[in-house]
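Example complex used in Figure S2.
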Amino acid sequence: MAQVTKAWILLLALSGASTALSVAVMRGMLTGTAATLGGVAILTLAWAKARTILNAYLRLDEAPAFRRGFGLTLALYALLLLALYLAG
Amino acid sequence: MTQPTDTGRSPFDDLPGDLMIWVLIVSELLVFGAGLAAFLGVRLTDPAGFAAAQDHLHRAAAGVNTLVLVTSGWLAALGAQAVAAGRVARSRALLTAAAGLGVVFVAVKWAEYAGKAAQGIGVETHPFFTFYYLITGFHAAHVAAGIVVLVLVAIRARPREVEAGTAFWHMVDLVWVLVFPVIYLLR
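Predicted assembly (275 residues):
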């Protein structure tokens, strides 16, 4: 199976997982700390999706130095979003 | 400027596609990244108001649009592989399908905006909606531009152009996977 096809399947799975988590929070299945952890998981899934697109669709897997640079920057940005989310 | 290595190669030669498309990708990511960080920053001033405003959004439609866009990105990536392998007709078909899913994305987004307008929700209703229209509207404009780019590179169907056009499309995809959870899902 082509790498982009594996990436696409992974992206579908990650998108489904983040939507399921959101629905669980909306329906009150996750409350309090669990709801907050649900938000943390949603942001983590978004980070994983962004990495997948960079590495597979945009082919940074073929340029390891740039993959590391983009990966580090993206991770730091995800941490910023996470901090702003948790501060609320 | 780029400094050649001892072998005469620039480090940027390792990047897939043209350097300029990566400059564009990085600049677009910075703009959207700043917008999303500002959104979460302003949210700190009124978390309850932002949560109430978010309840007016159609999360299922946005979820469907996520699946539409990542599938479109997959088709575009396959289209780039096809033209690189000399399979021009297959590449054109894949790029056209990718552009078609882009049209679906815009149509769903249009219906979403129409629903908000019918509820009397506008840019000035609440700061949440100011960011919502600004960020998702700017993104939708990029999707519309990306559709035109995909159609143009499908017509020309040359590896270099297709690589650049699909890279732009993947950037649009990348931005959406960050916009979707931050605007639509986070409570």
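The interface with chain A takes residues 11, 14-17, 25, 33, 36-37, 40-41, 43-44, 47, 59, 63, 66-67, 70-71, 73-74, 76-78, 81, 167, 170-171, 173-174, 177-178, 180-182, 184-187 of chain B (CB under 8 Å). The radius of gyration of chain B is 19 Å.
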